Amino acid sequence: MIILTSDGLSSDALLFETKLYIKPQAKVIFITTASGIGSRDHSLLTVKKELARLGAISFKSDSLSRRKNLDFLLEYDVIELLGGNPFWLLKRLQELNFSHILEKILKKDILLIGYSAGSIVLQNNLRLIARLKEDEGDMNADIHLRDINGYKLIDASIVPHWQYLSKNYPHYRRIVSYYERKENEPVIRLNDGEGIFVKGRNDYYLIKGESRNN
User: Fold this and answer.
1) Is the dihedral of CA 82, 64, 73, 71 positive or negative?
2) Confidence band (pLDDT; 50, 70, 90) for 214?
3) Which end of the chain is more exposed for a tag (fewer CB within 10 A), N or C?
4) What percent of the residues of the chain are helix, what percent strand, and what percent coil, each to the nearest 5?
5) Cα dihedral: 143, 76, 106, 38 (round 10)
6) pLDDT confidence of residue 137
């Protein structure tokens, strides 16, 4: 199962649904690459508490900075890709051939969770996110990532934190609507507290809830 979230399993509704898919006494690995600050990622404590509520008993974090391959991920029951800069996360995943290990993750029935940037890299591509983030500075400026295709686990684009973004950047609504028409691709406007449960590219459903982080 793949769960794509805006700000983690931050609502009771998401925790309730995730309980259907998580293994008892699960071992969890958090990938902090996108934040660029590793174990000092401010979201670590929160996401640990969320999964502990579901019975997870073992937690590790890894920035992937010293890794030469991703085989170690197969040792875990839950992999959560945390938030930050999706371009930096995508670049590091490409360098480590994540596509290869992703096939094994899905076959082994490991629970894969995306949190903001972690959700973005699992979709088709990062073109829409690049457009939206121009107001906050080009997130790809210092990374120079040419291949911005994601891992295509869902046939839609995702915009996390939509409630916040659409309120503070109202013109984003126009940009997103234009992108949907031009690319003929649905855009899921994902609020904090919501998550998409993905069984296949065309087989997914949305769970809504109120985030505890707001």
Assistant:
1) positive
2) confident
3) C
4) 35, 20, 45
5) -10
6) 55
Cα separations (Å) of 58 from 4, 18, 55, 70, 166? 22, 17, 10, 19, 37
Hey, where are the domains in the chain?
A: 2-207
Top-level class of domain 2-207: alpha beta
Which helix (H) or strand (E) segment is 207 a member of? Answer: strand 203-207
Residue 134: which residues within 8 A CB-CB, separation 6 or more? none
Separation of alpha carbons 105 and 77, rounded Å: 9
| Mean pLDDT calculated for residue range 130-139 | 70
Sheet with 203-207: strands ordered across: 58-62, 27-31, 78-81, 111-115, 2-5, 195-200, 203-207
Backbone torsions φ then ψ of 30, nearest 5 degrees: -105, 125
The string over 71-99, giving b where at least 16 C-beta atoms fall within 10 Å of a residue's C-beta and e elsewhere, is eebeebbbbbbbbbbbbbbbbbbbebebe
Q: Are 26 and 78 in contact (CB under 8 A)?
A: yes
The pLDDT tens digits for 64-86 are 989 999 999 999 999 999 999 99
